Amino acid sequence: MKIGIVGLPNVGKSTLFNAITNAGAVCANYPFCTLEPNVGIVAVPDERLEKLAEIYFPRKITYATIEFVDIAGLVKGASHGEGLGNKFLSNIREVDAIVHVVRCFENPNIIHVNGEVNPQSDIEIINSELILSDIELIEKHILKLEKLIKSDKKYLSELEMCKNIHQRLCKGEIAKSPGISEEDSKHLKSLGLLTSKPVIYAANLTEKDLITTAQNPFYKAVQEIAKNEKSALIPICAEFESQISEMNKDEKLEFLNCVGLEKSGLDRLVSECYDLLGLISYLTAGKDEVRAWTIKKGTKAPQAAGKIHSDFERGFIRAEVIPYETLISCGSISAAKEKGLVRSEGKDYIMNDGDVVLFRFNV
């Protein structure tokens, strides 16, 4: 999973990015890896793996990972190359979802790029740049299709779809506007349009407002926009995340409890990303390794096995499955088998989140 973080300068985007990537590396015992100056890979916090490790005593624990891309330089005019815009708009086309950080706090010591805190205006600026970039991309695609149609009429429906999307973009609407047809939706992903990607608005608040979001007028404005777009929204405090990013697990939990929070911003963000993209995790466990594997909801057992190795899918025989909670309550896989709680599932079995699986295959 690859998530792009966008936002205007001085909204807390880079603070959040640095806190999340550092927190992910420390809390999950996964080495922080910098692929480029603006890219970080973090492990997905998953307490289930730690509980399974207490049963299997594996040589290693491998967490699912998320790649975060800090889309820096996104300012007004980015679609025309302002503020490193071309480079980072190119990077964002590769992400699965966008986290749009919006400033919802006032601080005279942190200058707002446009002179005042105005979430609605900030969102409109970012969306406008993404829309302008999408218009340029789809216009090039339309020209390509018009040439192809001269020799093959099968591209007519795709051309019509692209023209409809182009009209919508020119009106200032995002590509994934409510009411878009199912057929158009299928083509959007392949086109790589920025405004077709799922969006999570991260409302960056002060620590005080994080507990009482209903009293923050800036948060209410973002909430209304997210509702109209059918986008996700999470309240977050980038400064607070920065403070807890280097704490160990026990310290972090105690600190969160003190301020009345159950989960860190990273945990809430990861959970929202999984829900937004329709993802779940199944688990494998043994002496060598306890590991989480990320798949789409609705994935069948053979295709899930293929995440481990293509041979597992090609030679799939069956999946020996037990829900995580059931295995933990039994205390061991042998005890679960004695009680007849380990199921044997075939090719049509649809995987569930938290399934602990052993795949049987023959190649």
Question: Can you tell me about this structure?
Answer:
- There is one protein chain.
- The chain is an alpha/beta fold.
- The chain contains 15 helices and 13 strands.
- Residues 23-35 have low confidence and may be disordered.
Notable characteristics:
single chain; 363 residues; alpha/beta; seven-stranded mixed beta sheet; three-stranded mixed beta sheet; 13 strands; 44% helix; 20% strand
Task: Describe, in short, the structure shown.
The protein is α/β, with parallel strands linked by helices. It contains 15 helices and 13 strands. The two termini are 29 Å apart.
Taken in chain order, the helices and strands follow as: EHEEHEEHEHHHEHHEHHHEEHHEHHEE
Percent helix range: 40-55%
Q: Taking all residues together, what is the mean pLDDT?
A: 85
DSSP strand (E) fraction? Answer: 15-25%
The strand line-up of the biggest sheet is 2-3-5-1-6-7-8
What's the end-to-end separation, in Å? Answer: 29 Å
Question: How large is the radius of gyration?
Answer: 23 Å
Q: What is the element layout, followed by pairings?
A:
Layout (H helix, E strand, L loop, with lengths): L1 E5 L6 H15 L5 E2 L4 E5 L3 H10 L3 E3 L2 E6 L14 H8 L4 E7 L15 H31 L6 H15 L11 H10 L7 E6 L2 H5 L5 H13 L2 E5 L1 H7 L4 H10 L6 H13 L1 E7 L3 E8 L4 H6 L3 H5 L1 E8 H7 L2 H6 L4 E3 L9 E7 L2
Parallel strand pairs: 1-5, 1-6, 4-10, 6-7, 7-8
Antiparallel strand pairs: 2-3, 3-5, 9-10, 11-12, 11-13
